[in-house]
Amino acid sequence: MTTEIEKRLHDLRNWLEQVKAATDAVSLESIRSKCIGRNGELAEIMRSLRQALVEERPRLGQLANEVKQELETAIGEKEKTFQAGVRQQKLVAEKIDITLPGWTIKNGRLHPLTQVMEQAKAIFLRLGYAIAEGPEVEKAYYNFTALNIPQDHPASDMHDTFYVGQTSQKWDDQLLLRTHTSPVQVRVMEKQKPPIKVISPGRVYRRDADVTHSPVFHQVEGLLVDENTTMADLKGTLTYFLHQMFGRQRKVRFRPSYFPFTEPSAEVDVECLVCGGSGCRSCKNTGWLEILGSGMVDPTVLAGVGIDPEKYQGFAFGMGMERIAMLKYGIPDIRMFFENDLRFLEEF
Amino acid sequence: MLIPVKWLKEFVATSLSGQAMADRMLNRGLETTFVKNGGEEFLEVDILPNRGDCLSVYGVAREAAAMIGAELKPLPKPKAKPGDRQAKNDFKLEINDLDLCPCYLGRIVRGVKIGPSPDWLVKRLVSAGVRSINNVVDITNYILLEMGQPLHAFDLSTLKGQKIIVRRAKAGEKMATLDGKERTLTDQMLVIADSARPVAIAGIMGGGETEVSDKTVDIFLESAYFKPASILRTSRELGLRTEAAARFSKSVDPLGVEYGLEAAASLFEELAGGQADEKLFDVSDEKWRKAHDREITLRPARFTRFMGYSVPVKEMTEILSQLQFKVSPKGDDLLVKVPSFRLFDVQREADLIEEVARIYGYEKIPTTVPAVLVEQEILTPTEKILRKIYPVCLAAGLTEVVNYPMRPQKDAERLSLSPADKSKMTVLANPLSEEQSVLRTSIIPGLLENCQFNRFRQIEDVNIFETGNVFLKGTADAPEERCHLGLALIGNRGQGGWSKDRIGAGQADFFSLKGIAENIFVALKLLVIFADPKTSGSATPFLHPGQQAGIVVSQDKRVVGYLGQVHPDSAAKFDLKEAVYILEIDLDEIAALPQARSTYKPLPDQPASRRDIALVVSKTVSNEQIEQTIRSAGGDILENVQLFDLYSGQPIEEGYVSLAYALTYRQPTRTLTDEEINNTQQKIIQELGQKLGAKIR
Fold it and tell me: In chain B, is it the N or the C terminus that has fewer CB atoms within a 10 Å radius of its CB?
């Protein structure tokens, strides 16, 4: 009896061939049921195990388990291949046209002026400058007088000014649209003791309109006042700024100039962004572009806000953002910034 | 100023080419460009307003010589013929206002023959861009160009009463200038008068009746120093910008006044056949003469501390001497005497430091970076708010625009503003045009114009925003400036119209607008209510009466903005036929509020249960009423209520709407039982029915 049971168990392995040959999940299930199912062959053999010798039973039981394991593993693996096929078919059926456009709300953009302004601000914030703001409708005192531009000095001709409301009896009280953001510096110096290290970005106004002049434009100005701030510091700071802004390979040039609120004053040029210095229309064939006005804060300005010019000294600088954006992006007409044609704005 | 190189080189001994001179001068403080025109070479010099001394060939020559280190040759000496100068006269000169005219010289030249100038003189003038008129006028122009002293020649026979009086004009006094225009003068303006009337506006322009003509025989020649500020003011007030005014307003060389007069008189004799009288009319202020001896101490140590590098004292001395300053040692320092032609711009030690630095060369300045740290807030409150708002606007597909803050007055009518709101507009005294004559009180009109501009160019979908100051005039002189955010939506919100059920890609409407607003306030961490304008009391006149809301801060009920569809009547006034949705927020109002900080809250460890409620109510019932009813009936265990469906139309009865809400239940400390949740659902359904007449579907 024992031998017969053992043989039958061994013969069960013949099912492995059929498992291998199965072509679909249904026939595989039928094979499984016939060999190792509840009423299958193996179950039947196990029931006959009672007839075997008691001492033989453990050995036969172990053999039965082994055979069962083999069959289960084979069936399981076969099953997996069928499942993979089904999933594969499903995936094929799910193919989409990936060339259809994405659906989204398109990202908006910052105005090119804001982009350039943010770049400039970021460089100065990195250098430890704080941002200061002031009113756009200013008093002549802050816009001119406190900056060493007396009403009757020819330097005041450098600024075509919009006046606001009634003409004031007292020039210093006359309201106007600020012609530069320098009045912010005066207001900061009135309130704060050195060291002072601020930039004043903002909107300014000049009564002037053509291809390169807009009655409204934007400036970023800076001011650093401390005990030993020098012209060399100014040159180092602005060279760093221009290299960050326009690339480290650009040459930078400092030229003597005149601004009423700085002495000495310097105009700062950068190698032409368009032609790289060989000469073109943008740089009027000079190879250089004027970018910044700067200088050491005039002692009269410091004294005027109650800062002792013998003890403290510092530098100031300023630049027009429209000009920088025009040069950077090759924009031919300043008025395009304010037309707000979306096709233009989306170029940047 | 256009300077012929040939003329310049008469005074500067150099073999440098015009181009080389220009390059050198540019880097030493004169903005110079080399120009070739018709075979002739020029230096185009852009003279800054503090350097009136450079407004002549000789003035530029002085600078150029110092800049290139060349010898400066002197001006030609007037060929005076003292023997000829004998005629006596009883002509008189009076100065009433020495404060405006501290020095006035005159000489009478008799028997001139008015005619054309010799060729060399004509060529000179033409090369410098000046038209030749006749020998007398040409000579005065020639002296002006050569050394910068403006002169004026009167026809002596036309001067009444044998007299020149320098005085302030009488208020309202009139005179005809030689450009043929009648000028009305004020009592702050200086005139040259004879015994009867003004014959010239001092330092600016002569009168038509006394100018030199073909019939002129005897001349009164004027050379003077007028106070720069007075000339500038008069020239501005009269809108009369002349070559003479340009020089007097930036100060002429006090010591050049006499040279100019004599050089011209001498040329009148040489080229116009005249004879000068012996008498030199000369009235000048003694105090003014004394003020020409200005000495300034220059401390080399100060230079080093200020500039960050040092220049040897010997080199400083050389540079200043080249610029015609007289330098003498004074201990460790230098005592520097300012030449007469630089008195206007060199007044302090700082000015001398600049003189040394610019001639020494800015290219030699070292570069250092200051190590100054300031302990203050880096960003302003407004700047902080902007940095939170930009990302929301960009993600919402809004493109930033920048508009002029100057607006037309008609905005008030276009936006149906009340008289009170219209009075908040700040008016410019001298606008460029009516279209830019007041300062904006809102960002919106600019945005509506941008919408129109783009629609007109076949750009259908306009999603834009702008931030910037608005100007609100109150009782104070200066308007209050507040930073506002404005945005406008027209057309589609995004791309993907081919796929119907995509969120956010459809046409702009009130709710896509409100969605952006909600995101903005989430980013600002500020709880707000979008309030019916009837209850918040802030109806906006240019918005659709049934599609607008005020934005109200939950905590203190202050109104910080509004949003809605633009009223079709207002839209039409901006040439917009389509529905436009706009929002405006006062960012400074928000910046002034205490800023909320993010704090950690523990995450729930109990599971949530979701139940839905679908109901039908009258359209007069608002979502807000339903949500409030659900929340109050739901009590503590109701965590969230969210509308997920809204429908009206068949089979829902006319005047009714079907809404479906998802309710989330959760208790942080324990798991809720089905019974609890079911009881609460029942209670909610009951309340909805009782309070709002809602039927559950």
Answer: C
Interface of A with B in 155-194 (CB under 8 A): 155, 157-158, 162-167, 173, 175, 177, 192
Nearest 5°: phi and psi at B59?
Answer: -60, -45
> What percent of chain B is modeled with pLDDT above 90?
84
Give B86's pLDDT tier (boundaries 50, 70, 90): low
Share of chain B above pLDDT 70, in %: 97
CB atoms within 10 A of CB B335: 14
pLDDT band at B505 (very low <50, low <70, confident <90, very high): low
Which of A96, A98, A106 to mutate to probe the B interface, most B CBs <10 Å? A106
- Between A150, A232, A239, which is nearest B309 by CB? A232
Looking at the DSSP bridge assignments, the partners of residue A297 are A262
Subunit contact A154:B403, Cβ cutoff 8 A: no
Q: Which of A125, A172, A231 to mutate to test the interface with B (most CBs of B within 10 A)?
A: A231
pLDDT band at B500 (very low <50, low <70, confident <90, very high): low
Per DSSP bridges, beta strands B163-168 and B92-95 are: parallel
Q: Does A343 touch chain B (CB under 8 A)?
A: yes
Q: What share of chain B is helix, strand, coil (3-state, %, to 5)?
A: 35, 25, 40
**Residue-wise over B385-396: b if at least 16 C-beta within 10 A, else e?**
bbebbbebbbeb
Please count the CA atoms within 13 angstroms of the CA of B151 that sit on its side-chain side.
Answer: 34
* Residue B662 φ then ψ, to 5°: -100, 125
Average pLDDT over residues B602-621: 93
- Minimal CA–CA distance to B156: which of B200, B245, B91? B91
Between helix B300-307 and helix A231-246 the angle, nearest 10°, is 20
Three-class SS state of B226 = coil
* DSSP code for A154: G
CA dist A111 to A119, A181, A339, A343, Å? 12, 20, 11, 12
Asked if pLDDT for residue B135 goes beyond 90, the answer is yes
* Span B104-123, average pLDDT: 93
E strands, B496-655, where? 528-531, 543-553, 559-566, 581-586, 609-618, 638-647
Beta bridge partners of B495: A104
Q: Is the CB of residue B656 less than 8 Å away from at least one CB of chain A?
A: no
Q: How much is the mean pLDDT over chain B?
A: 93
Instruction: Mark yes or no for CB contact B493/A103 under 8 Å.
Output: no
Most A CBs within 10 A among B344, B374, B495, hence the mutation to make, goes to B374
Single-letter residue type at A104: T
Assembly ipTM = 0.89
What average pLDDT does the segment B280-294 reach? Answer: 89
A290 touches chain B (CB under 8 A): no
- Overall pTM surpassing 0.80 (yes/no): yes
d(CA A222, CA A341): 32
Query: pLDDT tens-digit profile of B48-83?
Result: 889 999 999 999 999 999 999 999 999 998 876 644
B117 CB-contact burial (10 Å; exposed 0-12 / middle 13-18 / buried 19+): buried
Which parts of chain A sit beneath pLDDT 70? 1
Smallest Cβ distance to A104: which of B33, B400, B494?
B494
Neighbour-count burial for B126-151, b at 16+ CB within 10 Å, e otherwise: ebbebebebbbbbbbbbbbbbbbbbb
Asked if B482 and B589 touch (Cβ cutoff 8 Å), the reply is yes
* Contact (CB, 8 A) for B93 and B76: no
Neighbours of B620 (CB within 10 A): 11
Tokens 């140590």 — which residue?
A: B301
pLDDT in tens, A146-170: 999 988 888 777 788 999 987 777 9
